[in-house]
Design a protein that fits this description.
By secondary structure, this protein is an alpha/beta fold. About 35% of the residues lie in helices and about 20% in strands. The chain has two domains: about 170 residues, 3-Layer(aba) Sandwich (Rossmann fold), CATH 3.40.50.620; about 90 residues, Pantoate-beta-alanine ligase, C-terminal domain (Pantoate--beta-alanine Ligase, Chain: A,domain 2). It binds pantoate.
């Protein structure tokens, strides 16, 4: 596996290969990322993974400085997974100007759900992803469903800006107790880690209720919030939305998704669960 740190070098390597599948990441790789790589390999012989902790998508007071940077260990995992190129640019390489003047402005969805609690986050995500797409020029790119709103924002960006890249959604990897795999799980204390699957359990309970026929969405959302808060979480949101575009769910919808974010102590976890009715 080649480790490439500059845009020029990546571009000159890119000229020598045909079809590329791409997995953008912020590193600190876990089994969920490796599932993205496995999916990417189904679509192209050559897989490029990027590792870049993108300052643009972190708000003030968020964990940009503390975000785990584990390049050496990540590179070993990617090498074993058969990745052709690890693209790991510096902040200066991707953002040579102190201010990024041109940004991708997502739809109003950027201000809902995660966006309500992380203003500017999806603008930062969309901007860096488009930059990476322009550098790597993949035919395929894989994104995890764990960050479902991010996936929808990227799908909308690709459709509306006519970006010629096929986006492949990949199912969320989970620990045996149901906790969604995330780099941020590393922030959990032992006790919090024991408690963390409660978030998924609440989503599963809601799914069950929906499948039994309940359509009182806001009652279900409030009950779930109360359950989590009673268990010691600080819930930011639990919402039932339409899966295709994350607009508000209606009683006759058949493809829904329940999305949630809550803090357990300091760490803030997000999760979601698809529901077919
Ligand atoms: O999902 C992530 O790890 C990041 O948001 C991404 C897509 C790599 C952009 O920085």
């Amino acid at each position: 596996m080649q480790i490439i740190k500059t845009i020029d070098e990546l571009r000159s390597w890119r000229k020598s290969v045909g079809k590329v599948a791409f997995v953008p990441t912020m590193g600190n790789l876990h089994a969920g990322h490796l599932a993205l790589v496995r999916e990417a390999k189904k679509h192209a012989d050559t897989v490029v993974v990027s590792i870049f902790v993108n300052p643009l998508q972190f708000g003030q007071g968020e964990d940009f400085a503390a975000y785990p940077r584990t390049l050496q260990a990540d590179a070993e995992k990617l090498e074993q997974a058969g990745v052709a190129v690890l693209f790991a640019p510096s902040d200066k390489e991707l953002y040579p100007n102190t201010v990024q003047a041109f940004n991708v402005e997502p739809s109003a969805l950027q201000n809902e759900l995660e966006g309500k609690f992380r203003p500017g986050h999806f603008r930062g995500v969309a901007t860096v992803v488009l930059k990476l797409f322009n550098i790597v020029e993949p035919q395929i790119a894989c994104f995890g469903k764990k960050d479902f709103q991010q996936l929808v924002v990227i799908q909308q960006m690709v459709a509306e800006l006519n970006v010629n890249i096929h986006i492949i959604p990949v199912d969320t990897g989970r620990a045996e107790d149901g906790l969604a795999l995330s780099s941020r799980n590393g922030y959990l204390t032992d006790n919090e880690r024991q408690q963390a699957p409660q978030l998924y359990a609440v989503l599963c309970h809601m799914k069950n209720e929906l499948q039994k026929g309940r359509r009182d969405f806001s009652v279900l959302e409030n009950q779930a919030t109360e359950t989590l808060n009673n268990q010691g979480w600080q819930t930011d949101y639990v919402e039932i939305r339409r899966r295709a575009d994350l607009s508000h769910a209606r009683p006759d919808d058949t493809q829904l998704i329940i999305l949630a974010a809550a803090k357990l102590g300091k760490p803030r976890l997000i999760d979601n669960l698809e529901v077919d009715l």
